[in-house]
Amino acid sequence: MQTKVLSAKMYVLGDWVSGTKTFDVFDPQSNEMIARVPKASAEFVENVITQAAEAFRSISSWPTHERINVLQRAADYIEEYHERYAYTIAREGSKTITEARGEVSRTVQTLRISAEEARRIKGETINFDQREGSENRTGYYFRFPIGVVAAITPFNDPLNLVAHKVGPALAAGNPVVLKPASVTPLSALMLAEAFDQAGVPRGFLSVVTGSGRELGDALVSHPEVKMVSFTGGTNAGNRITEKAGLKKLGMELGSNSPVIVMKDADLHDAVKSTVSGAFAAAGQNCLGVQRVFIEEALFEDFTELFAERTKELEVGDKQSEWTDVGPLINEQEAERIEEWVQEAVDAGAKVLHGGKRNGAYYDPTVLIDVPHSCRLYYEEVFGPVVMLESVGSIQEAVQAANDVDYGLQAGIFTSNIDHAFYAVHHLHVGGVMVNDSSDYRVDEMPFGGVKKSGIGREGVAYAIEEMTEQRVVCFKIAQPWSQ
């Protein structure tokens, strides 16, 4: 029986609108068309941004309590329809239904944290009398919203990564014009549905759908856009920096995450965590474990147990609660990963498990002896492939972990506090997870990387800082305080 195709609409400036042109959305598991979505033009997006800026200027002050209420009501709405949101995430994307349910729960939390942080946007007093001759001055600074935020999000977390941009932006009092990934637009439109029901002010949220190549320049270069918040690939990030001009940029550009396992680690815990970190969401996770460096004395035991646990993973139907690993986002991505693995094998790498493709599916794959010259080693694979390598010391492990152009997060498993702190202080990354794999994250923490992994930090409170500006106020008093 053929599934009914959904005819979706964009949420633009408070209205649900259709488009004269559309594009199709497919389930990557079956390649079945599941929705037809409006395809916006660059001119349309430019007009949306202009009107969003006008809406921002028309509201002299959006009170904090109203922002809090809108965010809380949106969270309540998503929580009420939790299963519908999870089904949509699993249907249009790569996640299993179990993983999708987890993402919905995190989204609710992200919006609730945004509501709480809205009440904490504060400034500080400034001691102007620290300068001689300024004894009669006093003042402070406060934070104010910057204006229109353009947000561009990827396919791998199609609801929560959208919430990580929309939630902080609205908490700070900014309008948002969002373009979700073309392969997973439905989850973002459903987030807009929650905010529409929650009473977001007209003009303060728009979700425009269409091609990134066609809409990207309009989004990032428009003079009314005061910040671009982007999550995606490094090449696209470079293009944005060239086009954006003088405005704030927040970018999370992916990674090639390392994990270090020392001989004094809890073997079973390290294996369990790194297998999960490598293959969750079919490896399509910017924090996913890609390279594991194991101290030589533990290498054989770790490798054997890691391969055994990987073999236990159930690959199959996304909507089944028994499935551990679903398909890639499309068959082209699976073919790319197949090519990269074959390149490594041809160069001398050995496959301990996996290495096989079936349509958009690629089996969880474990490799050893991968030459450092292979793309699989130094680029972001963004798929269910992990490399295991033996090292002789913590110093060698850290040096190897740093030997790529990315630096988002890393993990280390050890019971030696000196080893832990050596890693903390010498790994070139935005976060070090001790006795956890690289993919551990809570939505409140500062999140971002160094090198090619990005600019700035997300995590609700830290995103709000990026989406606000400081304004200093100084009062000159007629008589000094000392008189």
Report on this structure.
The chain is an alpha/beta fold and 483 residues long. The chain folds into two domains: 6-253 and 453-470, Aldehyde Dehydrogenase, Chain A, domain 1 (3-Layer(aba) Sandwich); 257-434, Aldehyde Dehydrogenase, Chain A, domain 2, CATH 3.40.309.10. Helix content is 39%, strand content 23%. It is built from 15 helices and 25 strands. It has a seven-stranded mixed sheet with strand order 15-18-19-14-13-21-22, with helices on both faces. Strands 10-9-8-11-12-24 form a six-stranded mixed sheet, sandwiched between helices. Strand 13, helix 9 and strand 14 form a beta-alpha-beta unit. Helix 2 (64-80) packs antiparallel against helix 4 (97-118), helix 2 (64-80) crosses helix 6 and helix 3 (82-92) packs across helix 4 (97-118). It starts with 5 loop residues before the first strand and ends in a 7-residue tail after the last strand. The mean pLDDT is 95.
Sum up the structure in keywords.
alpha/beta, Aldehyde Dehydrogenase, Chain A, domain 1, 2 domains, six-stranded mixed β-sheet, 15 helices, Ald_DH/histidinol_DH, Ald_DH_N, Aldehyde_DH_dom
Characterize the biggest β-sheet. Answer: 7 strands, mixed
Tell me the span between the first and last alpha carbons: 87 Å
> What would CATH call the homologous superfamily of the largest domain?
Aldehyde Dehydrogenase, Chain A, domain 1
Output mean pLDDT: 95
With helices defined by DSSP (H or I, 4 residues minimum), what is the helix count? 15
What is the number of E strands? 25
Specify the helix fraction band. 25-40%
Parts with pLDDT < 50 across at least 5 consecutive residues: none
Strand order of the largest sheet: 15-18-19-14-13-21-22
CATH class of the largest domain: Alpha Beta
Total count of domains: 2
SS strand fraction: 15-25%
Structural class: alpha/beta
Q: Looking at the structure, what is the overall shape?
A: globular
Oligomer class:
single chain
Question: Could you say what the CATH topology of the largest domain is called?
Answer: Aldehyde Dehydrogenase, Chain A, domain 1
Rounded radius of gyration (Å): 24 Å
Assigned CATH architecture of the largest domain: 3-Layer(aba) Sandwich
Protein name: 3-sulfolactaldehyde dehydrogenase
Family: Belongs to the aldehyde dehydrogenase family.
GO molecular function, one term: lactaldehyde dehydrogenase (NAD+) activity
Catalytic activity: (2S)-3-sulfolactaldehyde + NAD(+) + H2O = (2S)-3-sulfolactate + NADH + 2 H(+)
